[in-house]
Design a protein that fits this description.
By secondary structure, this protein is an alpha+beta fold. It has twelve helices and ten strands. It folds into two domains: about 170 residues, Beta-lactamase, CATH 3.40.710.10; about 140 residues, Beta-lactamase (3-Layer(aba) Sandwich), CATH 3.40.710. The strands form three sheets. A five-stranded antiparallel beta sheet has the order 3-2-9-8-7. It has a three-stranded antiparallel beta sheet with strand order 4-6-5. A two-stranded antiparallel ribbon has the order 1-10. It binds 6-diazenyl-5-OXO-L-norleucine. 6-diazenyl-5-OXO-L-norleucine binds next to loops.
Length: about 325
């Protein structure tokens, strides 16, 4: 009997994952946020979900990890829903920066202070400042509840050890945020430390591969909930998010990943990657060992392998 693609994936994912695990040796676990350094360097886990809600797990998918930069995609979506496209893109650009995620190089070069895109740290901080709420707690709760709704899981929350660890050591993000403030990208009434506090909490939201795959599935499904068919995110904003994932999701390795895998994806320094095959799959990956660009070495290897095998590239 001829196997469907899904049956083929289910049968082969564990072996491919074990092959890709070797690539973890080429990477290093992030330690600039000290709490992240405890993650197991050789771990690799992956979950795929299809449009029927079928789920397949392989490897260390029981591991929980903080979303870090993956959160930026969903905070951007909430900011777009809160404020609309015009207001958001007054504060942040739409172009890949070609620099590291925490770079300040281009901030002063083009339109002074306006970050190149919402997925680099400076841009993400500017976007977090746009989230509605009367206090930092209210802003964070709105972000957390939005993530819970997209993942369909009300247990999702912040890992406060990771949050505190970043809060203590984030000298570079502080300098980016103060620079934004100096250039009026952060409005008068916004205190820099307040925005950073929400941003650190958002980055420290903890998930597992399956929760990430479910979030990816909502994007793959055009913003619609798989079970209820209800629209959770307007399609136009899903389109914007997917485009940023392709052009900026893997930072200054986005071009290489687009050529090699060709699917929308977003990485985080915890080693997580969210990816999706439009109309077909949501994917969550964790592999804490990172390459020099801040992306999971084993995670990228596995996604590349899957995409080539099943011809997933959208290009
Ligand atoms: O702001 C930071 O540096 C972290 N909270 C997030 C950075 C990150 O995940 C970059 N991704 N590869």
């Amino acid at each position: 009997m001829i196997k469907t693609e899904w049956q083929h994936i289910e049968a082969h994912l564990p072996a491919w994952l074990e092959e890709s695990r070797q690539a973890a040796r080429r990477g290093k676990v992030a330690d600039y946020i000290p709490e992240l350094a405890h993650a197991p360097a050789d771990a690799l886990g992956c979950t795929l979900i299809d449009t029927n809600g079928n789920t397949t797990n392989a490897g260390d998918c029981g591991l929980t990890f903080t979303m870090q930069s993956i959160s930026k995609v969903f905070t951007l979506l909430l900011a777009l829903m809160d404020r609309g496209e015009e207001r958001v893109f007054n504060h942040v650009g739409m172009e890949p920066s070609g620099d590291d995620y925490n770079s300040m190089l281009k901030l002063e070069l083009v339109e002074p202070g306006k970050p190149f895109n919402p997925l680099i740290n400076a841009g993400a901080i500017a976007v977090t400042a746009l989230i509605k709420g009367d206090s930092t707690d209210e802003q964070f709760v709105r972000i957390r509840d939005f993530f819970r709704m997209i993942a369909g899981d009300s247990s999702i929350d912040c890992n406060y050890d990771v949050y505190a660890s970043e809060h203590r050591t984030a000298h570079r993000n502080r300098s980016l945020a103060y620079f934004l403030k100096d250039n009026d990208v952060l409005a008068d009434e916004i205190a820099v430390e307040d925005v950073l506090d929400v941003y650190f909490r958002q980055c420290a939201i903890e998930v597992n591969c399956e929760q990430l795959a479910r979030m990816g599935m909502v994007l793959a499904n055009g913003g619609y909930d798989l079970v209820t068919g209800q629209s959770l995110i307007p399609y136009r904003y899903v389109q914007i998010a997917k485009t940023f994932m392709v052009t900026c999701g893997m930072y200054n390795a986005s071009g290489e990943f687009a050529i090699q895998a060709g699917i929308p994806a977003k990485s985080g320094v915890s080693g997580g990657i969210i990816a999706l095959v439009p109309g077909r799959y949501g994917i969550g990956v964790i592999g804490p060992a990172l390459n020099s660009k801040g992306n999971s070495t084993a995670g990228i290897d596995l996604l590349r392998k899957l995409s080539v095998q099943y011809n997933w590239s959208i290009f």
